[in-house]
Amino acid sequence: MAQTADPMVLDPAIPPELQALVDDMTRRDAALRDRETKIRSTEAHLTALSKRVRTERTKLDNDRTELELAGKRQDEKRRAAEELTSVEQRASRERDQIQLKMRQEQER
Predict the structure, then answer these.
(1) Which parts of the sequence are annotated with region: Disordered (predicted)?
(2) Structural contact between residues 19 and 10, judged by C-beta atoms closer than 8 angstroms
(3) C-alpha–C-alpha distance, residues 56 and 66, integer Å
């Protein structure tokens, strides 16, 4: 007479082979439920990781955009500095020419 806590076993006089089969199926069912639980847990973990990856990718994209803008601003500053240097050089040449003309007129 095999006894089990499983509610599916109603008759205590079931043959041992059948009881062994029921016990085996009960263990397999429990193992399957454990696997399903692990799978759900893993899926939740993967979902969380995917969200984290998307967040980090967004941060990187934002940083890249910010760096590109900073690079453009740096290029604009460099061009402005070059333009200022060019204007200063032109003004210096014009001043030198005016001073030369003034000396020439004073010498006459």
Answers:
(1) 60-108
(2) no
(3) 15
DSSP string for residues in 75-87: HHHHHHHHHHHHH
Over its length of 108 residues, how does the chain's per-residue pLDDT go in tens digits? 445 455 555 567 888 899 999 999 999 999 999 999 999 999 999 999 999 999 999 999 999 999 999 999 999 999 999 999 999 999 999 999 999 999 988 887
Separation of alpha carbons 21 and 27, rounded Å: 10
Residue 9 near residue 19 (C-beta atoms within 8 A) = yes
Whether the Cβ atoms of residue 2 and residue 19 lie closer than 8 Å to each other: yes
